[in-house]
Amino acid sequence: MCGIYGIINDKNNQAAQTVLEGLKKLEYRGYDSWGIAIKPLASDTLRVDKHIGKIGEAKTNLPPGSTALGHTRWATHGGVTDINAHPHLDCTKKLAVIHNGIVENYQEIKEELLKNNHQFISETDTEVIAHLIEDKSKNKSIIQAVFETFKTLRGSNAIAVLDLNSQTIIACRNGSPLVIGLGNNQYFLASDVPAFLKETNKVYFLNDGEAVVLNNAGIKLFDLETEKEKILSPQILDWKLEDAEKGGYTHFLIKEIYEQLKSIPKTTSINEKTITEIANKIKSGYKVVLTGCGTASYCTLAAKYFFAKQGIDAQSIPAYEFMPFSKFIDQKTLVFAISQSGETADTLIAVRQAKKRGAEIVAVVNARGSTLERLADTVLSVGAGPEIAVVSTKAFTSQLSTLYLLATAVADRYEQGKEKIKNLGKVLTIWLDKKIFETQIIDLAKKLMDEEHMYLIGKHLNYPATLEFALKIKETSYIHAEPFAAGELKHGVITLIQKGTPCFVLASQDEVRDEVLSSAAELKARGGLIIGISPFESKEFDILIKTPDLGDLTIFPNIIVGQLLGYYLGVGRGADPDKPRNLAKSVTVK
Ligand code: AGP
């Protein structure tokens, strides 16, 4: 939540424009408002430009300068207004502060600052940071003042401060991500790599409790506790610029849906050694607990079915409901934390709790350099590449594929599992390549465009598939889509079905096919419009979107139908499929 981006030594002295462009790459982190502060070349006063709304096509007329700091906001404290947009200044207007996180003790800090006559303009928790630094810098260096202030803040936070006098950016991290980029005599600070990937792939991911000072002379890394300088060891990322660009597609979402044709089979060529080691632990008697939030949580549920098929009783616990069950976790438990960003607050809280109980943590994570990666004992990197659209697609299918491979490895069938995933990649490529299929989805989207309620049913593996399918519809089109286990239907839900109500039936050629069709018949008898998402035809279906028959793996194409349908419904209803309202890509607050 919230994107941070700053630059030192902009090569064209167009730091504000550079920051604006970089912020557009981070917009997925929050799009309530954006703002930039710059030290102009020809002036000794900070200039700030900030506005509510998406940064999309925004322009800025901030003057030339080589040092600037910017922010995209996902509002927590204070409404969505120009005034509450970051950066925030101190009373002297010589410090500009941007922030990602929540300052839990901001009220107490503010009360003290008010006693010292500080003038507050916004309703944000962030503004107290600027005034506290101002206060502390009266009798110490600006660097010490920032470090001390940061250590006063409670909660998970990352801050970046632009100091006018020294033309320095100082940033600190505790719980919210920060990465620095080392370019050709240019230095970057960001919440995520895509902001500066155009300029450099030489990066350093800050750890919690670290701070950086960036100025003309270069970058210095500090330990916040001791305030001593540390050696900075950057790494070179194998990410390509195209990964963070739309590459001819209208939206990142549709690009990422199609990238699954490569990202799913890619999971067979990474992690083999780690998967084998983890499988051996499970075979030796370790319990398996899977956790995550949102889409990642649905991934844990689908994986639970995969493990069950291989004779393993895995637990799936949403991270935000983890605590009551954490007492069952012990040193012989493997806790799998599934996450695209590796920064989701609830997932990290569950992981920290599991660690306290002595569990071994396996992070099944997509983003690089995340907090989750660092907390984990073992990392299963899912390798889907940067996922920019807020709605998760390719990260989810790669996580699911990775867990499928692990489940097969536990049953000593890893090679067969690999072949099945490779085949899935091939079949999906042929299936998605057929324009006829996409035309069918677009036609269906047109038909359902004005609906406000939809229902979905599925059984066994297709149950978590309905949860994920429905979430894609809700996130991208804002249509109420409610998923149910098919068996749940007659226990109450069926009251909601009326003549013409769209009802999706997700099915596979499996042992529960006939039961699902009976449920479809019950829906049909109440007048529902039955839309089959399935490899087979049935008289119960009024409409059929035929998916390839891939056994257990049929849920992949079944879910991809939901991704595509959500995308086209969203576009048709005028929503922004890359940036759904009220959401942010990584949810770093509880
Ligand atoms: C997915 O489309 C969602 N926007 C959301 O549910 C997401 O999956 C969830 O917030 C977890 O994020 P993570 O994978 O980065 O931990």
Commentary on this structure:
The structure is a single chain. Helix 7 (295-309) runs antiparallel to helix 13 (462-477), helix 10 packs antiparallel against helix 11 and helix 13 (462-477) runs parallel beside helix 15 (555-572). It contains 15 helices and 25 strands. The model has no long low-confidence stretch (mean pLDDT 94). The protein has helices at residues 15-25, 106-115, 127-136, 142-152, 252-266, 272-283, 295-309, 345-356, 371-375, 394-410, 414-433, 435-448, 462-477, 513-525, 555-572, and strands at residues 3-8, 33-39, 47-52, 67-73, 88-89, 95-101, 157-163, 168-174, 179-182, 187-190, 202-205, 210-215, 218-223, 229-230, 235-236, 287-292, 315-318, 333-339, 360-365, 378-381, 453-458, 480-485, 502-506, 529-534, 543-546. The chain is globular. An eight-stranded antiparallel β-sheet has the order 3-2-4-1-10-9-11-15, covered by helices on one side. A seven-stranded antiparallel β-sheet has the order 5-6-7-8-12-13-14, covered by helices on one side. It is an alpha/beta fold. The protein binds 2-deoxy-2-amino glucitol-6-phosphate.
